[in-house]
């Protein structure tokens, strides 16, 4: 399935927000999303969640004969798969550019940096070595696959235990987990990838881009570092032009981030080890939270309703008259009516589209406040709105300019006995009810 | 390789160069008559041919055409006899695909694609002999070929690799130095504006040394730029003399 | 084959010219274009050659590796061919576009070399049934300007002439296990005898006459062509007809005679060039693509 294209409005909105240093989810420019690491029941299996991006990593091992030109080294094999589960844009079986890029980046980050001691994987030189295979599956795509994948890969490798092997002369004995405890892999250091997204030709820079931000970015810079501040890989992609200072700045930020993430990983591994030792429950079933509502209760909040009338009077005297005068509805044909002139046509001037969105919001607020004002006006006993209340018909337009209708009697009744807050909620409830009605008919 | 000194005490490298010295660069433009633009470059023992076709109409699926700029299509392929050990497949494996992507990214940034909407520019690079710095030589050859084809670019794209041994940055690594496993940086630069089109680094390097290594790579790129510029000027001079202006 | 679009008028012009024994570039029907042959272009191969026949550019590299002999021929080495039609020649060859043409050329090469007398495979044997030299001949098609097969065969012959296979000695241990020792001297090597290696001559039938060494435009005008593999003594080892058209048996005989004649001259010229290059030895200036 082809990816849904991003509309121009969304694109512009995101870029403008980034210019004002605001991100959609409220993070700062250099903030990471929440990283959650959970382990499976077997050794070497883990799920890493970076915000909503989820990657599953699984490590397995096998005894094979070594490569001819590297007879004393074990073999490391990495494979990242983008399953269609992650995003409908990923099609099964087709090797896309993104997949090649991610796989090569992971290979370079983990293999070329020699994070795992391959010599220790040798059992009998030239005859039998361990082949460690790391399979990563992307379960959900919400941006920044490479970071999540690199964390998953290194966590899975740290968590993995391989069966113990002993060599006596020519005899090689492979012990099952029951006979001897499996042995962890010897890992020198933990390289973690940090991605930087560049916008507006490198003027703005964000760490850990979400999926929306990835779609509008100009280019990506990935720096892989370990906690000893050694850079393992740098890769710039996309058509951006970088300056040397930008790269150096990014590397400093990476140092800080990697330290935080490494600490998190250590803690998670420590926790898991403790839980397993104490015999507690572990595994995925325990780590997925139960998202069931077992009880729902709202506490009673006492509201002071003594001086509602004074407050209301104050608001009325201070407030301006409603900007839009609701004219009499014009009945065009049975079933349709028109109230007012409608707002200005926003299709002509695309530059102002955002401002008009804001205007609409303002007018929305104006109408709801107008509604409330109408109601408050009726408190003071102005009865000329009686007619309006009778004849105002709900417009069929999809706009949120909805005028709420309620028979006068109930209004008056409810008004005297309820607090200001509940008034709002009641008006909103009817508001919502009308909207829901509209939805069902459509 | 144990026992092989990559940098001797006197400051000489394996092939007798100093730390910041480039290998001998020889280049020629207009090698093939049938292609729109072609170039051949030799950097030490690395020999690369680049050929450019375009801008021409979109071949294959029309749906991939971009409405406001040209599509840059690259292919990086190594001859089967180019490496020490015979390569089974000239192109199509992961490493070649990655190089192809990098070349495409580099040239999309440098070529003024807005001038040719809905068309396609093909850049094909063939490595005849690989002795280290394959990507860098490919970028240099492709730059010359694009200039030979007359396609407007923002600036030359010059690429060079750099390494770091015993606190000294080395420029323009050959195969032996690359295979030793030390840190290596490949950098593609637009020399006049100092903008980096592609930055790639492998193996471990401490953050504090990053500045030095990138500086060495930038300097090497600028040296290559002077060589390439001279080649282009000579070629244009030759062509105009032959035309008899 | 790379295609070229010709108008009817151009085709008629070419056909009429050939009927008068006058080709577009001024050659006669039996003349070859100016050919450049250079050996030892790529240094990390055992042998290499580059041939530039007009606009056709071919680069051949030969790598010698040790392997086990084939079961049915235990005391011989063998040759493996691979043709890479690179995208340089034409954008149609990008990705997997050039595979079809490549396989066709490879099959033709195998047929020619399957004849036992073309190259002495017994000299490639080290230890019967255990070790032998395998020569990987890799052909790289850089530019396509017509008459591919001829150029490829010339390049293969030149590359094999240039191939230097290091001499090996087999040492027998006390236990009977054999060790292969490569001689240290890089100049101590065996050379192949390529006297009997045939060359391919392609004769294209245009109108009622046949031409040797057709350019791309002439190939577009011809409906049928005959591929002959000729040795230096003028013997025909292999024959194949290409193209959609049909050939009269009379014209086939004529083409064979022409082919033999042209083949002999081609072999003599090639041999002279190769020997001259060889005699220059290390003083020869390697031009490669820079010239």
UniProtKB/TrEMBL annotation, chain A:
InterPro entries: ExoRNase_PH_dom1, ExoRNase_PH_dom2, ExoRNase_PH_dom2_sf, Exosome_comp_Rrp42_subfam, PNPase/RNase_PH_dom_sf, Ribosomal_Su5_D2-typ_SF, Rrp45. Keywords: Cytoplasm, Exosome, Nucleus, RNA-binding, rRNA processing. Coiled coil: none annotated. The keyword Magnesium does not apply. GO terms for biological process: exonucleolytic trimming to generate mature 3'-end of 5.8S rRNA from tricistronic rRNA transcript (SSU-rRNA, 5.8S rRNA, LSU-rRNA); nuclear mRNA surveillance; nuclear polyadenylation-dependent rRNA catabolic process; rRNA catabolic process; TRAMP-dependent tRNA surveillance pathway; U1 snRNA 3'-end processing; U4 snRNA 3'-end processing; U5 snRNA 3'-end processing. The keyword Cytoplasm applies. GO terms for cellular component: cytoplasmic exosome (RNase complex); nuclear exosome (RNase complex); nucleolus. Belongs to the RNase PH family. PANTHER family: EXOSOME COMPLEX COMPONENT RRP45, EXOSOME COMPLEX EXONUCLEASE RIBOSOMAL RNA PROCESSING PROTEIN. This is Exosome complex component RRP45. It comes from Pelusios castaneus. The lineage of its organism: Eukaryota, Metazoa, Chordata, Craniata, Vertebrata.
From TrEMBL, chain B:
It holds the Pfam family RNase_PH_C. It comes from the Eukaryota. GO terms for molecular function: RNA binding. It is found in: Cytoplasm; Nucleus, Nucleolus; Nucleus, Nucleoplasm. Residues 21-152, 155-220 form the Exoribonuclease phosphorolytic domain. This is Exosome complex component RRP41. GO terms for biological process: nuclear mRNA surveillance; poly(A)-dependent snoRNA 3'-end processing; rRNA catabolic process; rRNA processing; U4 snRNA 3'-end processing. Keywords: Acetylation, Cytoplasm, Exosome, Nucleus, RNA-binding, rRNA processing. Its main location: cytoplasm. It comes from Pelusios castaneus (West African mud turtle). The keyword rRNA processing applies. CDD domains: RNase_PH_RRP41. The lineage of its organism: Eukaryota, Metazoa, Chordata, Craniata, Vertebrata. The keyword Transmembrane helix does not apply. One of its GO terms (cellular component) is nucleolus. Coiled coil: none annotated. Component of the RNA exosome core complex (Exo-9), composed of EXOSC1, EXOSC2, EXOSC3, EXOSC4, EXOSC5, EXOSC6, EXOSC7, EXOSC8 and EXOSC9; within the complex interacts with EXOSC2, EXOSC7 and EXOSC9. The catalytically inactive RNA exosome core complex (Exo-9) associates with the catalytic subunit EXOSC10/RRP6. Exo-9 may associate with DIS3 to form the nucleolar exosome complex, or DIS3L to form the cytoplasmic exosome complex. Belongs to the RNase PH family.
Automatic annotation (TrEMBL), chain C:
Its main location: cytoplasm. InterPro entries: ExoRNase_PH_dom1, ExoRNase_PH_dom2, ExoRNase_PH_dom2_sf, Exosome_comp_Rrp42_subfam, PNPase/RNase_PH_dom_sf, Ribosomal_Su5_D2-typ_SF. GO terms for biological process: exonucleolytic trimming to generate mature 3'-end of 5.8S rRNA from tricistronic rRNA transcript (SSU-rRNA, 5.8S rRNA, LSU-rRNA); nuclear mRNA surveillance; nuclear polyadenylation-dependent rRNA catabolic process; rRNA catabolic process; TRAMP-dependent tRNA surveillance pathway; U1 snRNA 3'-end processing; U4 snRNA 3'-end processing; U5 snRNA 3'-end processing. GO terms for molecular function: mRNA 3'-UTR AU-rich region binding. One of its GO terms (cellular component) is nuclear exosome (RNase complex). Residues 32-166, 196-261 form the Exoribonuclease phosphorolytic domain. Transmembrane segments: none annotated. It is found in: Cytoplasm; Nucleus, Nucleolus. Keywords: Acetylation, Cytoplasm, Exosome, Nucleus, RNA-binding, rRNA processing. Belongs to the RNase PH family. Component of the RNA exosome core complex (Exo-9), composed of EXOSC1, EXOSC2, EXOSC3, EXOSC4, EXOSC5, EXOSC6, EXOSC7, EXOSC8 and EXOSC9; within the complex interacts with EXOSC2 and EXOSC4. The catalytically inactive RNA exosome core complex (Exo-9) associates with the catalytic subunit EXOSC10/RRP6. Exo-9 may associate with DIS3 to form the nucleolar exosome complex, or DIS3L to form the cytoplasmic exosome complex. Exo-9 is formed by a hexameric base ring consisting of the heterodimers EXOSC4-EXOSC9, EXOSC5-EXOSC8 and EXOSC6-EXOSC7, and a cap ring consisting of EXOSC1, EXOSC2 and EXOSC3. This is Exosome component 7. It comes from Pelusios castaneus (West African mud turtle).
